[in-house]
Amino acid sequence: MIINHNLMANNALRNMNINSNSASKAMEKLSSGLRINRAGDDAAGLAISEKMRGQINGLNQASSNSQDAISLIQTGEGALNETHSILQRMRTLAVQSSTDTNTDDDRTKIQSEVDQLAKEITRISNTTEFNTQNLLAGGLNDTFQIGANAGQNISLSVSAMDASSLGVADSLKSSQNLTAGSSGINTVSNASRGMTAAAGYKVVVDATAASIGAAVDDIKDATNTGGAVTTSGTYTGDADENLIIQATSVAGTSATNTISGVKYSTDNGASWKTATVDMATSGITVDGVTTKIAAAAGAAWRVGDQVHLSLTAASATLTLEDSTSTPIGTAVTVHNSNSTATLGSSTDGKTVDVGFAFSSLDDGTATFDVAKVDSKAATTNDGKVTQEASTVAGIDVSSQGAANTAITAINNAITTVSSERSKLGAYQNRLEHTINNLGTSSENLTSAESRIRDVDMASEMSEYSKNNILSQAAQAMLAQANTQPQQVLQLLR
User: Which of 197, 224, 403, 458 can bridge 98 by disulfide, Cβ–Cβ 3.0-4.6 Å?
Assistant: First the structure.
């Protein structure tokens, strides 16, 4: 018998601690519902489980992405449904106008409705959006992430669906040679804008060439004798201005020096730009005008001396007139930078859009492009409309022949919209299958992840009960072991 070391008590204590720890871990698993609560529970299982969780979360988000894509497609396709309805109405009107039981007045009213329908097609194209992205202006080229991993995506693009792109906007043009003064426009015919070819509308051109005037009185030198100012070139600015040139440095002898550095202003001295130049030889060029300044014999230039030039911009006034030379609307002034103008009166519904080369307006050789209407496609950037499509008038149905031709054009537009809607419908059906597949994959992966990470409650409860009973038994044995050394007292009596 020994009393210094109670080996039985130590053994009972060790087993009691083991059982208590095991019971504690079992209780943690039962309370959390997880078999793996920390990496130490199952290092490999934790790594596999986390990888599966990433896949599951990705699949669930991909399913949400696919549903958003379906919503986008439904928005665009729903708008095209209305475009289809409008095109069908336009076709009906074209068929109605193609029979000669209609008078010119009847066809004018039909044309008016066709114009409004074309404008509505373009408005739908400009304003149909999903999350601020325009869907039908031709700039949509989206990529949808439909998988949990990189590169698992599909792309969708939608063509422009405005009236001009569909071919149901009147954008015909004619070209005529117009001379400065007066020339007749005989090819413009658009009843909806109040104009017919027989009326003999014309553009009157009144051109003014650019001019340069030097204010010699403003040239100063040391002896106030003045100097020689020469100019060359043609002023290319778009507005009249006063050019001030001021000496900032001079070179040479006092009697024959020249201006070697200048600053100049085109806004009457409010702001200045500098230049280093020999004004007597090479001069300075501003807006196409080259100016040279040479001192008179015996004169001496000083820093601060100035010369003023008055520059008159080249311009032309364009006026739309009828066959009796009566102006329609107000004159439009154009300058060197202009190449288009809208003439006439929108109030009276009589306007034409003209394109021209400015340089030929004052030499009698001007050529104008005379457009019936101004219809253009939208300009887009990253799905956003930066310049909306515009439609002034619908396809021409103002005569039997024009209406007959319009029927074919509208048929082609209907086919184009049908093709786009079919593509959108096919994408929607595909995405619905994608969502079903993603849901199945997510479910199966969740099941696999559950087997790795989740605890079997029944099994773990049995383990907990066993460890709890063993812990209580060890505690009882520890108490018994602690009584063993007392038996030594019997030997000491």
Answer: 403
Phi then psi for 255, rounded to 5 degrees? -90, -25
Half-sphere exposure of 424 (CA within 13 A, CB side): 27
Q: What are phi and psi of 392, to 5 degrees?
A: -85, -40
Structure tokens belonging to residue 183: 């020339």
Classify residue 354 by burial, with Cβ atoms within 10 Å: 0-12, 13-18, 19+: buried
Task: State the amino acid at position 338 in one-letter form.
Answer: N
CATH number for position 160: 1.20.1330.10
125 contacts: CB under 8 Å, gap ≥ 6: 83, 136, 137, 160, 161, 162, 163, 165, 378, 389
What Rg, from alpha-carbon coordinates, does the chain have? 45
Spatial neighbors of 174 by CB under 8 A, at least 6 apart, are 187, 188, 369, 370, 372
**Between β-strands 315-321 and 201-208, what pairing exists: parallel, antiparallel or unpaired?**
antiparallel
Phi-psi bin for 469: left (phi > 0), alpha (psi -120 to 50), beta?
Answer: alpha
Structural domain that includes position 292: 211-312
449: Cβ contacts below 8 Å, ≥ 6 apart: 49, 52, 53, 56
pLDDT at 216: 45
The 10s digit of each residue's pLDDT in 420-459 is 999 999 999 999 999 999 999 999 999 998 888 877 777 7
CA-CA distance, 160 to 219, in Å (whole number)? 62
